[in-house]
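Reviewer 2 asked us to include a model.

Predict the structure of this chain.
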Amino acid sequence: MPPLGLESIASSVKDLCETIEIVDLRYEKKPLSHFFAKRPDAVLISINWYYEKKKVKRIVSSIPSKILTIVGGREATEKADTFFSDCPNIDFIIRGEGDKAIVELLSGLKKEKIKGLSYRKGERIIHNPLRNITELNHFYDIDRSLRKYEYKFIINGLNLGHNVDGIFSSRGCPYNCKFCSFNFTPTGEKIKWRGRKPEDVVNEIKKISSKIIIFLDENFTFNLKRVESICDLLIKEKIKKFFVANSRIEISKNPTVLSKMYKAGFRILTLGIESSQNHILTRLKKGFTREELEKGFKVLKQFKIFTHGYFIIGNINETENEMLDTSNFARKVGLYSLGVSNLRCAVSTPLYSEIKNTPGYYIDKKERVYS
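Predicted model (structure tokens):
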């Protein structure tokens, strides 16, 4: 996927810069020294996943000290003190959403007044208060003309030959899954769901040249009236794309909407199922049962939509046989593919205190839960 978060940051500050360049190290063939040789005034680095940490720290350490170095992203937000300690040349870390903070910083606003900003003051690290949740109602504004790489639809290393792009039509999630860290601020405050106007979503789609578009919403199908409106506009405008979206099993209760989604071009739905066991679904607060899943998939199988299921193993009191039942269950309900992950638990999630207070369960440095 294109780095839409970083592209959003670039789009936010482009009017403040004489030149701006997005470097995606997954695709860039030139060494970083090539870009440092241009003597940029600032380098902005995004880090969102724990497994990127070591590589990013090496990159940060290679940046000449005279270049302003600003780091952001989920991992930097949660481990700000560690990054400052390990990387002496980091000037600022932006915690949480960075679109507003980076504009304020590069516009010259005093650092003490910028919410979410962390910085050094002598031997101390200062962490300004985070932005209030009510200030996070904007959506990513992507200027795709800043992009210089082609992004292909790749599955397990297999390049399917089609360009791919992403879009956010909503942010947040109304559900309360205890393990999910994507819908909480670093302080544990719930990020409420809010959706864009269907017209705005379709207008952005019109500007995207890629054949395949992935909706990156946590739950694209939460507001069914909005989904129908988006589909109606796509059909009316005769937009021929291949859409992928995240959903929940509740969509099966609305076959009319599913039919319209298929007609509009939706061909893949990914669903967070997590477990085939009712006691685990209850513990994780998924909001449905195994029986409801089985009933729902009977409806989904009536449509020519590829379904992919996400599962989590290693839950509290989960047995080996229950973990192994995952593939049997997936086959029984008719999933086309499944992804299995170890249970992870960030500090900001409701599950964190439960894991900490359960004898025999622990959380490692990568936030993985084990017994």
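The chain has a mean pLDDT of 90. The domain at 4-135 is CATH 3.40.50.280 (Rossmann fold). We have added this to the supplementary material.
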